[in-house]
Amino acid sequence: METGSPDDTGTAEATEPTEPVRDQPVWTGLPPGLLRMRRLLLVVWLGLLTLAAGLLPGLFLGPFWAALALLPAALLAWGWVMLERNWRSWRYAERADDLLISRGVLWWEETVVPYGRMQLVEVTSGPVERHFGLASVQLHTAAAATDATIPGLDPAEAERLRDRLTELGEARSAGL
User: Fold this and answer.
1) Maximum distance among all alpha carbons in the chain?
2) Residue 99 and residue 168: Cα distance in Å, rounded?
3) Residue among 112, 122, 120, 123 nearest 175 (CA)
4) DSSP calls for the chain
5) Which residues of the chain are under the pLDDT cut of 70?
6) Predicted TM-score (pTM) of this structure
7) pLDDT at residue 69, as a whole number
């Protein structure tokens, strides 16, 4: 039994229709200033805890109890590594109709916020964030569960993102 056309030369060409390649989002990571700020806060708080856990028991109960300082010191070393993993996991992407926010190391979470559903876009910066030159963008929607935050951005990038999201939200006219 013959298959094919009379001019079939036996070459295998891909004649199956290929599925169109969807545009992959262009992800933007967070600036390293956020990692520096979080590590400094870790060192300050766990450094004080390490000092208190070693000094107070060492003075009042004896030098053997000063070994309690090893626990916060080990926690500091573990936290140092975990902060970098967490920082690397945060990213966001602006697509044509929505904003994607991805985060998480153990529990990965991706939030999709349609531009038309945004009601409020805020740029906030607390005193520690301002000292490090950082700001956060918070997106509010009608559903409280879909509120999203992008922490640790440069203030200029946070304002640009706020303005762009506000513009796109107004263009979609369902939210802002």
Assistant:
1) 98
2) 10
3) 120
4) ---S-TT--S-----SPPPPPPPPP--EEPPHHHHHHHHHHHHHHHHHHHHHHHHHHHHHT-GGGGGGGHHHHHHHHHHHHHHHHHHHH-EEEE-SSEEEEEE-SSS-EEEEEEGGGEEEEEEE--HHHHHTT-EEEEEEESSGGG-EEEEEE-HHHHHHHHHHHHHHHHHH-S--
5) 1-23, 59, 144, 146, 173-176
6) 0.74
7) 76
Residues 6+ apart with CB under 8 A from 75: 46
Write down the pLDDT at residue 93.
94
Q: How far apart are CA 52 and CA 66, in angstroms?
A: 9
Pair 82, 105: CB distance under 8 Å: yes
Q: How far apart are CA 78 and CA 100, in angstroms?
A: 29
Q: Say if CB 72 and CB 46 are below 8 A apart.
A: yes
Q: Which amino acid type is present at position 80?
A: W
The b-or-e profile of 128-158 (16+ CB within 10 A means b, else e) is ebeebebbbbbbbbeeeeebbbbbbbeeebb
Distance CA 53, CA 59 (A): 11
What whole-number distance in Å separates Cα of residue 141 and Cα of residue 114? 9
